[in-house]
User: What shape does this take?
Amino acid sequence: MKKSYATFSLFAIIAFIALAGLSSCASKHTFQSSTVVPAARGDVKVKRDGNKNYVIKVDIRNLAEVKRLQPAREAYVVWMVGEDDATKNIGQIKSSSTMISSKLKASFQTVSSTKPHKIFVTAEDDAGAMTPGSMVILTTDNF
Assistant: This one.
């Protein structure tokens, strides 16, 4: 009886360590409140994939259509500050009715080989902007 209990305990410890290791690979970061779109809320989830890349998933609620901003803009752009402190345009959140639903929800996902330390969203006149403009919609703290 003692052998089976010891085997079970060892198995439980190994399982706990394995699960703890998996959960430490994912992190969730909440966007700070927006002064430009005060109702906007959202979060960023970052996790490692099987290729050791970083999967970045952004979910936003109550995001106004970009054309309704004052002044109106053309696109919402997602930016990443990487471990080298370089800021990079990692994609666009489309403001068409197919991407931002009638419930004002939007999501965005991409993969990066560089570990992110901060994610933020700006409203831009050009979705291909190489540097962020001054209209920051949402931002995380550094992580």
Summary: Residues 19-24 have pLDDT under 50 and may be disordered.
